[in-house]
Amino acid sequence: MKPKKFTPAHKSNNLAELVCSNSLKSTSPEKASGILKLEMLELDSLIIKAAHKSQLPAGGALAVDREQFSNYITNEIKSNPLIEIINDEILLLPEELNSPLIIATGPLTSSGLSKSIEDFIGKENLSFYDSISPIISYESLDDAHFFRASRYEESEGDYINCPLNEEEYALFHKTLIESEKIEFHNFEKPNYFEGCLPIEVMAERGVDTLRFGPMKPVGLIDPKTGNRPYSVVQLRKENSHESMWNIVGFQTKMKIKDQKEVLSKIPALKNAEFLRFGSIHRNTYINSPGVISNTLQSNKNPLLFFAGQITGVEGYSESSAMGLVAGINSSRIFKNKEPIIFPIKSALGCLTKYISDPSNKKIQPMNINLGLFDVKKPKKNIEMIKESSRQCILEIKNTNQIELDLV
Q1: Spans of the chain below 70 pLDDT
Q2: Where in the chain are the domains?
Q3: What is the pTM of this model?
């Protein structure tokens, strides 16, 4: 619906605008996130290709330049002669369908369409609150109080690390606890996703919670002292020329003046210039089990598909993966072919099973993880998981079940 109408979190006129982190997480084939990306690349995923085209150094993570990423996808879509872009807000689902339709309106689905989806599925939409981390100008950092490193790597790494000693951490924690936060409306009840909690929510759980979360110092040695810091704040680059840095894991609902006050207690950030303040927004997703199948078709009308984060997955790669599955299967339905059920030995199959399994009465948003694979002790069996994943996708391709020249 952009640019005619924007959500509270979106600013750009382009497609594929990243408003939270700029990282698609790990590319390591030893991790579930990396296995998922390999499957998506094998299936010619536009999103993963765009991420590699706009990649920034970030250790083992696939971090991207937001503008390059968005521009690449926007240009690919606009230049495709088989795609028509209509910039309008859709308020209602059609009463009748003659061909496949995919609902991929994201976690910030506007209220009119959200209500129409709710009426269609016959169940109340669920929601959780997802916070955005601040972005800092590199020039405003105090280089006397940070060092470059990636965890467990001996050479200079891709992250800026801002160490705090015990006294500095205690002052930071106290100031954070006492800060003013954005108040919710009476009708809003925050239902946070555990993997993306605001830092103040974590801080309220105990004085050391942050030190075991986003401020954990493990795998890092401060070259100035030769020791591991008491706690550390990590910054990840936002663009290729390193002028903008994201505070990793520092999602927040603090008011702006309090963000300045609290973050100034971190020595490296005492004079920080904020290029974007942290904020909070409402995310909407459906309670998918019993509502959609593992082909992402609606149980009520198989011509209607759901895709993306609205299905109950969490993360850029996971949301894009659901778009890939819905795109493949809607194309097959359009050609009067059977949709593909991705095997649970694949990452794609694990995700579609999780969100569609009726035994999951009420889901919480889920990232891909090794625990979703049907394997005992998955970390010890990672080689088997990797090979099974590869074989699943190759078998589907080699039996001509997927035509990769489709739009």
Answers
A1: 123-131, 184-193, 281, 400-407
A2: 23-125+286-398, 131-282
A3: 0.79
Pairing of β 304-306 and β 101-103: parallel
pLDDT of residue 407: 41
**Which CATH number is 23-125+286-398's, of 3.20.20.150, 1.10.10.10, 3.20.20.10, 3.50.50.60?**
3.50.50.60
Give burial (CB, 10 Å; 0-12/13-18/19+) of 136. Answer: buried
Return the H-helix or E-strand segment holding 25.
strand 23-26
Which DSSP state fits 129? E
Q: Kindly report, residue by residue over 251-300, the tens digit of the pLDDT.
A: 898 998 999 999 999 999 999 999 888 877 677 888 888 899 999 999 99
Query: What is the C-alpha separation between 399 and 208, in angstroms, rounded?
Result: 53
Say how many C-beta atoms besides its own lie within 10 A of residue 205's C-beta. Answer: 11
Integer angstrom CA distances of residue 345 from 18, 236, 275, 305, 385: 30, 33, 43, 23, 7
Same-fold call for 23-125+286-398 versus 131-282: no
Cβ(318)–Cβ(367) below 8 Å:
yes
Cα separation, 236 vs 238, whole angstroms: 6
Instruction: Return the closest-CA partner of residue 345 out of 294, 392, 297, 405.
Output: 392
Say how many C-beta atoms besides its own lie within 10 A of residue 371's C-beta: 11
The first and second tokens of residue 69, run together, are: 């990423």
- State residue 109's pLDDT score: 87
* Whole-number Å distance between alpha carbons of 316 and 30: 19
Please give the full DSSP string across 146-195, using - where no structure is assigned.
Answer: -EE--TT-SS--SSEEEEE-HHHHHHHHHHHHHS-BPPPPTT------GG
Buried b (16+ CB within 10 A) or exposed e, 169-192: beebbebbeebeeeeeeeeeeeeb
Residue 373 burial (CB count, 10 A): 23
The set of residues, in sequence order, having a beta carbon less than 8 Å from that of 216 and lying 6+ positions away, is 231, 232
Structure tokens at 307: 């895709």
Between the alpha carbon of residue 322 and those of residues 10, 123, 183, 382, the distances in Å are 22, 21, 33, 23
- What was the pLDDT predicted at 239? 79
Report the CATH number of the 131-282 domain.
2.40.30.260
